[in-house]
Amino acid sequence: MKQVLAMGEALIDFIPAQRDCLLKEVESFTRVCGGAPANVAAAAAKLGGESRMVTQLGKDAFGDYIVDTLQDAGVDTSCILRTDEANTALAFVSLKADGNREFSFYRKPSADMLLREEQIQPEWFSNVGILHFCSVSLIDAPIQQAHRRAIALAQEKKALISFDPNIRLPLWNSPAECQARVREFLPCADIVKLSDEELEFVTGKNEITQAAAELFSGNCSVILYSMGKDGAMLLTPKGSCTVPNPDVQAKDTTGAGDAIIGALLFCLAEQDITKENVNEVTMEQWQAWLEFAVDYANYSVMGSGAITSYPDRETFIRWKQQMQQKG
């Protein structure tokens, strides 16, 4: 089995005790481990895959908690570095009645932003099948150059490069700066994860088929397109498939997008899919993997937080079987 290596921010999400109110109105929060790349690593590990997290945390209690949480999920944390130059990043979240979120970030700077390219070691990539990253760490900080080195090392190993823009505009000086940086890194990606809310901002197109045609003219060979309440679509140069959401009651959508890409990357890694053989995957297989990933993400929204809501494989398969029996 190949390894999923996730790189970027790992932080503390403070989840509100109150729902359907503005962030300034929330009176108390619950601490959970978060950060999109960390969530993806945890999802892949909880499903039984091999995953590794590359980031930098502060030498503080929050950093200790993140390492402990990822280890408990089965993630290899040997490449998580620690520093006393800055603290571990924090994010405060408010939840609307429909489960959608509003964020306020504390990272000026945070420890992950100070991860430098010379700290990225070639031996970390010995068994990597997929490198996954997001745009939060592509800001003007040392971690951006660390990402460039990691991408180069992963490409040398013929690993798939997975990119989820995961737009968080409050972390950027301007929307234009964020858009330009995302578009700069898009050509590096073999797999691109997009949401319906991000499509036009990221690609300049308002139809996924138009965006796909342009993305497929570069390195991209797989697009995972999440459509909120309408489920998800997966597109390749060979065709596309769509999976609707199962009938579940959403409590908290935090980490749902990470759950769907994490589950899909697990499926690829489990079958040792790399850049050299990804084009041999049939649409029937993509359909089955997409259904698996969509169901995994929907299981997660019934709980609170991200990693804490991700089931292990046995629990998830048992739930899927129960859903199928209900018809």
Q: If you average the pLDDT, what whole number results?
A: 94
* Highest CATH level, the class: Alpha Beta
Using the coordinates shown, work out and report the CATH topology. Answer: UDP-N-acetylmuramoyl-L-alanine:D-glutamate ligase
- Percent range for helical residues? 25-40%
Distance between the termini: 33 Å
Q: Strand content of the residues, in percent?
A: 15-25%
Largest sheet: 9 strands, mixed
How many domain units? 1
In the CATH hierarchy, the architecture is: 3-Layer(aba) Sandwich
SSE string, helix = H, strand = E? EEEHEHEEEEHEHEHHEEEHHH
CATH level 4 superfamily: Ribokinase
The count of DSSP E runs of length 2 or more, i.e. the number of strands, is 13
Major sheet: order of its strands?
5-4-1-8-9-10-11-12-13
Number of helical segments? 9
Shape: globular
- Which regions contain 5 or more consecutive residues with pLDDT less than 50? none
Measured on Cα atoms, how large is the radius of gyration? 18 Å
Structure commentary:
This protein is of the alpha/beta class. It has a single domain (3-326), classed as Ribokinase (UDP-N-acetylmuramoyl-L-alanine:D-glutamate ligase, 3-Layer(aba) Sandwich), CATH 3.40.1190. 34% of the residues lie in helices and 23% in strands. The strands form 2 sheets. The chain has a 9-stranded mixed β-sheet with strand order 5-4-1-8-9-10-11-12-13, sandwiched between helices. The chain has a 4-stranded mixed β-sheet with strand order 3-2-6-7. α1 (36-46) crosses α7. The protein is globular, with a radius of gyration of 18 Å. 47% of the residues are buried.
